[in-house]
C-alpha cells in the first residue's frame, strides 16, 4: 500500500496536483492513500507514523498487532507516544516516559517492545478488554509476566500503574479467542476455580492430542466456546462431532454458544459438578470499568 505525504510528493515532482487529487484520497492531514484502496490496520498505523514525521512511537493495541496479536479491531484508534497533542481523528497521542530499551523496530516502524506494549495494555481501558488484549499478545509472543512486572516497577507514577499487577495475574496465553477470555473472566468473577486452558486429552491413537479450551482436569470438567465456524465449516463440524463423542466418554463438557446467558452457563457448570468455592479477584468485582 502506497501511503504518501502530499507536500513531499508534490515538491519532488513524483506526482502532479492533478494526479494527487485524482488518484489519491486524504486520510490524515497531508497524508494520502490510493483512492479506492481498503486500508488495513497496518496501513493506518503507517499513515499515523508518517503524519508524525516519523517522530512517534507506536504503542497500545496497534503495537500489539504489529507484534502479532490477532484480536485487534481493524478500526481501532492508533496510539502514539508523541508530543503533538492535536491528533486528528483515529489517532490518540500521549507523551509518556519511554526508555530507550522499551523501543524496537517492527516492519520499519518504531514500536514499543512486547513488554512495554503489555504494560500499556494492562493499564488502559476496561479490565476485561485489557485482559483480552494481553491474552492475545501473550499467545503471539509468549511474553513473561515477570518481565512486564519488572518494567512496570520503572514507571511507578504512570497512569493506571496501580492495577497492572492484578491484571497481569489474570493473563493466560492459552485463550484462542476474545470470547474465551471473556467467559474465563466471567467464570472466575463468579467465584469458580480458575480453569486451566488448552487442557490436553490424548486421541484414540495415543500419539496425538485434542485440546480443550479450558477445564478443571482434577474434576474432569471442561468448558468450551463454540464459534460460528463450528456450524458453517463442514469439515470442522464433522471433526468436532467425532471429538465430542470421544471426549464425552470421560469428560463432562459444557459448550457455550453465542448468546448464552451467564446464569444458564453457571447452572450447567454446577450440574457438571463445579462449585463456586473461591474468592473472586477483587479487580473483577469493581462497580464499573470491568466489562465495558
How confident is the prediction overall: mean pLDDT?
Answer: 94
Strand content: 15-25%
What overall geometry do the principal axes of the alpha carbons give? globular
Radius of gyration: 23 Å
- Helix % is 25-40%
Total DSSP E strands: 12
Within the largest sheet, what's the order of strands? 9-10-11-12
Please describe the topology of this protein.
Layout: E1 4-5, H1 6-12, H2 17-23, E2 24-28, E3 31-34, H3 41-51, E4 57-59, H4 60-66, E5 78-81, E6 91-94, E7 103-106, E8 109-112, H5 114-122, H6 127-141, H7 145-152, H8 164-168, H9 178-189, E9 196-202, E10 209-216, E11 221-226, H10 229-232, H11 234-247, E12 252-257, H12 262-272
Parallel strand pairs: 5-6, 11-12
Antiparallel strand pairs: 1-3, 2-3, 4-5, 7-8, 9-10, 10-11
Helix pairs in contact: 4-5, 5-6, 5-7, 6-9
Describe the structure.
This protein has 292 residues and is α+β, with helices and mostly antiparallel strands. The chain folds into 2 domains: 130 residues, no CATH class; 108 residues. The chain has 12 helices and 12 strands. A 4-stranded mixed beta sheet has the order 9-10-11-12, with helices on one face. Helix 5 crosses helix 7.
Supply the key terms.
292 residues; alpha+beta; 2 domains; four-stranded mixed beta sheet; 12 strands; globular
Give a brief rundown of this model:
With 292 residues, the chain is α+β, with helices and mostly antiparallel strands. It contains twelve helices and twelve strands.
Amino acid at each position: 500500500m502506497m501511503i504518501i505525504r502530499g507536500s513531499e510528493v508534490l515538491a519532488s515532482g513524483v506526482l502532479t496536483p492533478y494526479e494527487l487529487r485524482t488518484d489519491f484520497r486524504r486520510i490524515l492531514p497531508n497524508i494520502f492513500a490510493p483512492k479506492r484502496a481498503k486500508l488495513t490496520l497496518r496501513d493506518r498505523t503507517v499513515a499515523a507514523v508518517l503524519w508524525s514525521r516519523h517522530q512517534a512511537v507506536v504503542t497500545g493495541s496497534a503495537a500489539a498487532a504489529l507484534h502479532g496479536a490477532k484480536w485487534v479491531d481493524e478500526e481501532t484508534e492508533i496510539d502514539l507516544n508523541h508530543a503533538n497533542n492535536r491528533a486528528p481523528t483515529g489517532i490518540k497521542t500521549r507523551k509518556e516516559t519511554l526508555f530507550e530499551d522499551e523501543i524496537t523496530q517492527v516492519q520499519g516502524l518504531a514500536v514499543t517492545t512486547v513488554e512495554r506494549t503489555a504494560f500499556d495494555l494492562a493499564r488502559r481501558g476496561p479490565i476485561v478488554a485489557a485482559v483480552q488484549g494481553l491474552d492475545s499478545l501473550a499467545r503471539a509472543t509468549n511474553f513473561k509476566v515477570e518481565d512486564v512486572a519488572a518494567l512496570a516497577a520503572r514507571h511507578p507514577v504512570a497512569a493506571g500503574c496501580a492495577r497492572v499487577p492484578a491484571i497481569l495475574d489474570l493473563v493466560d496465553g492459552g485463550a484462542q479467542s476474545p470470547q474465551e477470555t471473556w467467559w474465563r473472566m466471567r467464570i472466575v468473577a463468579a467465584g469458580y476455580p480458575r480453569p486451566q486452558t488448552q487442557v490436553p486429552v490424548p486421541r484414540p491413537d495415543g500419539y496425538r492430542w485434542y485440546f480443550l479450551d479450558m477445564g478443571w482436569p482434577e474434576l474432569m470438567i471442561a468448558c468450551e466456546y463454540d464459534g460460528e465456524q463450528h456450524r458453517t465449516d463442514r469439515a470442522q463440524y464433522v471433526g468436532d462431532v467425532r471429538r465430542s463423542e470421544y471426549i464425552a466418554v470421560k469428560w463432562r463438557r459444557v459448550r457455550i454458544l453465542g448468546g448464552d446467558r451467564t446464569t444458564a452457563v453457571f447452572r450447567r457448570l454446577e450440574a457438571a459438578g463445579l462449585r463456586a468455592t473461591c474468592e473472586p479477584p477483587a479487580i473483577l468485582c469493581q462497580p464499573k470499568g470491568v466489562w465495558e
